[in-house]
């Protein structure tokens, strides 16, 4: 039994394939279309999943939410606030009338365009948004039983939900409904700080350690009514998302006595303090819910999904409280992962497929996208005019590790493409974390992005506890923030507390300064041989060379561009940036050996993220 899951028409559209309850393939459409956060029907991602299905029939196609319920929410919201928002409602109504309310027909039309006469309308199912998220977290997890917390902007109605999973069954217990949304609160501050909603939230999180949470009480007094059990209501006097295409209104800015920051305008300490404040409130909400639900349900395992689950700082706080013995976070926690969850929900809840619990999980380390053979890589590079050498594995690890130790920034392209927003050693840019200048070099000359943004460390799993304060044994998906171990710090906690503003970015805080954030924090990825043998071998070679089992790992792309999906895109990105070396499969390319005429400035054409 094969099931195709689809997420589309909002942001981060994707497709996923499940066979007999097991994850086979998954990919975001943006990787193929090269449009970041592409919301369109995932035609190319779907085609990839159908290719992975082979000659076996795909029995059902499942869409990740229910359009009629979503329209009900939009209509009731308009009636609740009328006559405010009439112009926005009037502008959007034709789209809903023509497309969204007849989404079955639209989806069938898109599927027919890809694979004529393969599917009938009777094979098309619809999941609910939060059920899709919860299923994406529980079913691939390594737990027989778990509490499942989903938090995001909004689905049909739900913005926060709590479910219990047991075996192949899962039931939602509690919900908080629109317009009261922790995700939308965070997005409102994202927009206020001058970042783009649905993509800039991680920037706000990265900015928060540079600030002081001096506006927490203002937020609690005016914007969110937070109850002891973690339930909450947002004061709609300050927000516009119910009636307009904006997140907040003039009262919001007046509350903080500063106008909203224009995109790309200079960041000030005020913006860092705003980021720190809403981050603190977010952690308060999440922790209160977790405390109450852990006590109410007695569950020892926690699964997380939804866009808020990408807030790895809050995830680290949950882990540090030791409310649960084990935590598993869906690596594609946003809407892209809901395509996978929709397929899994249909498999286990609708079709009653038995569930197999796999260790360490059923996500194949996130490597669920396309891969390329060595011959395909060599043919692509030859056609592109690239100069390269082909090196056997043992020499590849050693030579690449030596280049990294010498300060070379290296593009690393191996195996199947990752599913979700994080590069995990398949489509990565790597660097030496011991180099104090590496963080700024990567930001400004490679990624072409803001200098304050932190980079994540990949570390050999067996060495993680020696280098970091580990609240959990593993963090394979780079979704947990912890701190650098005290033995590797260069300054005291007192010094860090007094020197953590935007003007203190260049202070060397640890033995691995390029991945140590201003408060000693780091968003870690632990790497095991059984999960990613090629990346593990490189990390091990780097440790043998330098004594350090850590590398900088950032996604293989420039600002405003999706992560590269193909060898051709990797070579193009390599030639357009300050990367020194590119390793694709067993092919090694050195920048100094390439024809300079192949270089491009394509990053200047990318829309700012």
Structure notes:
It contains 20 helices and 22 strands. The strands form 4 sheets. It has a 10-stranded mixed beta sheet, sandwiched between helices. A 5-stranded mixed beta sheet has the order 3-2-1-4-5. The chain folds into 3 domains: 2-137 and 338-362, ATPase, nucleotide binding domain (Nucleotidyltransferase, domain 5); 182-327, Nucleotidyltransferase, domain 5; 374-605, Carbamoyltransferase, C-terminal domain (DHBP synthase). It has 609 residues and is of the alpha/beta class. The model has no long low-confidence stretch (mean pLDDT 93).
Say what the CATH topology of the largest domain is: DHBP synthase
User: For the report, how would you describe the main beta sheet?
Assistant: 10 strands, mixed
| Total number of beta strands | 22
Class from helix and strand fractions = alpha/beta
What characteristics describe this protein?
Nucleotidyltransferase, domain 5, 5-stranded mixed β-sheet, 3 domains, 22 strands, 10-stranded mixed β-sheet, 36% helix, DHBP synthase, alpha/beta, 20 helices
